[in-house]
Amino acid sequence: MGNKKLQKLSVVTLIVGILPLATFVPILFNMALTGNVRSI
């Protein structure tokens, strides 16, 4: 029972960790893309 709770907690931690990354990466990619377009 305790192991299942721990597994669920690790999944939640993983999602919480990936969520900011998933929102930050497209912004960073978009900034790099627009930066490259401006430099040309």
Overview features:
40 residues; mainly alpha; 0% strand
Task: Give a short overview.
The chain has one helix spanning 2-39.
Total number of helical segments?
Answer: 1
| Helix/sheet category | mainly alpha
* Record field, number of beta strands: 0
Overall geometric form = rod-shaped
Q: Rg, please?
A: 18 Å
The termini sit apart by 59 Å
**How much helical structure, as a percent, in the residues?**
over 70%
Mean pLDDT: 87
Low-confidence stretches: none
Report on this structure.
The chain has 40 residues and is mostly helical. It is built from 1 helix and no strands. 95% of the residues lie in helices and 0% in strands. The mean pLDDT is 87.
Give the arrangement of secondary structure elements:
Elements: H1 2-39
